Amino acid sequence: AMMCLDSGGLAVQDLPYKQLRSRLLEDGQVLAMASQIQSSPSTLKGVVVDDLQARHSSGWKSSRAIHPFHELGYQHDGNSGNGRYWAQFKTALSPGVHEVRMTYTANPNRATNVPVEIHHRFGIARIRVNQQETPAIDGFASSLGSYEFNESGMVVIGNEGTDGHVIIDAVQWIRK
User: Fold this and answer.
1) DSSP state letters, 97-137
2) Residues 51, 155: contact at Cβ < 8 Å?
3) Hey, what domains does the chain have and what are their CATH numbers?
4) Who's near 146: CB < 8 A, 6+ residues apart?
C-alpha cells in the first residue's frame, strides 16, 4: 500500500509485480514455499507403505498441518468415531527378522494410547503408542520392535479407546 502511495496514488492492482516482488524480498518476505513432501520411499530404508497405500476405513481426514510427515501428508481420525477407524498397512517382505517402525506427527492433541497390531510369523503383537511423544528416530519414526516375518507383514492401527487424535502416516519394515 505504501508503494502505491509513494507512486502518486497508484491503485494496488496496477502496481508492477516486479517492483512489488523486489520490495517484498528486500523485506525478507517468503514468496514461495519449499516442497511439502517430507520424505519419499526412496529416502527411507527398507519397505515403506504410506497411508495413501494402506487399506483403511472411511472417514479419515487428510492433513499437512504438522511436520515432519511422509510423502504428501498424513491422516487423522478427528478424535472421533471411537473404534470405527482402522488402517491396515500390508506388504510383501523377504523372510526374516525386520524392525517395524511407524511415522507420525507428535502434538499435545494426539492420543497417548494408540492401539497397534503387528502381524508377524508367530502371531500378533499388540502395543500402544503415545503419539504425543516425539518419535525417537529422527523425530519422525518410532520403533515398534523387531519381529520375524514370512513373505508378508501387516500392521493395523486403530482408534478404539483412544484419548486424542490418532495419526496414520507410514509404516516401515527394515530387514535385520
Assistant:
1) EEEEEEE----TTB-S-EEEEEEETTEEEEEEE-TTSPPTB
2) no
3) 1-32 (no CATH), 47-175 (2.60.120.260)
4) 97, 98, 99, 100, 176
76: part of which helix (H) or strand (E)? strand 74-76
Q: Is 22 in a helix, a strand, or coil?
A: helix
Q: Measured between alpha carbons, how far is 5 from 58 in angstroms, rounded to an integer?
A: 53
In this structure, the chain runs to a length of: 176
Which helix (H) or strand (E) segment holds residue 18: the answer is helix 17-26
Which amino acid belongs to residue 71? E
- Across 68-92, average pLDDT: 95
Task: Tell me the residue type at 4.
Answer: C
- CA–CA distance, 9 with 22 (Å, rounded to integer): 19
SS3 state of residue 17: helix
The CA-based diameter of the chain, rounded to the nearest angstrom, is 78
Task: Determine the 3-state secondary structure of 43 from DSSP.
Answer: coil
**Does residue 68 have a cis peptide bond before it, meaning omega lies within 30 degrees of 0?**
yes
User: pLDDT (tens digit, 9 = 90+) per residue, 10-19?
Assistant: 777 777 778 7
Q: pTM of the predicted model, to two decimals?
A: 0.78
Distance CA 158, CA 139 (A): 22
Measured CA to CA, the distance from residue 36 to residue 89 in angstroms comes to 23
For residue 156, give the 3-state DSSP assignment: strand
